[in-house]
Fold:
Amino acid sequence: MNLSITSSKPTRAQDAGNAAIEVAVLAPLFIAFLAGLLVVMRVQQGGAVVAQAAADAARHASIARTASQAHADATSSALTTLRDRGLHCAPTVRLDLSGFYRPAGQAGTVAAHVTCVIRLTDIALPGMPGSRTVTKTHRSPIDIYRAR
Structure:
């Protein structure tokens, strides 16, 4: 009677080379995950900067004395905020200055709409978007005693 005991565990010789195959399969997935994470982080950070630029533009417009001064101050403020925060884009600043045409003593607001195209081509992989357009709006009340 021949009783031989065989182990069900694979030996090192049978397991050789599996790590290289696992790395070859998992590395592209890991790189795609990191690239996606970077894209999400850049869009999130860009959205926050554009929101701050819209808030700054609305605030500067609301404390101006005239609609033309409000337009100049708001545009300058939004561009400065975007530049100072390091967001390189070609922004569009649109203002709703209809509150300036109300008589003194009546409440009014100004609205600033800032749109920025965030470039993603330097971190995105093929198949991912090359840019993302972010638009933020902020309203600010106009001082009702501005003309006095």
Remarks:
- The beta strands are 92-96, 109-119, 131-141.
- The chain has one domain: 23-141.
- Residues 23-141 form one domain.
- The chain has a mean pLDDT of 85.
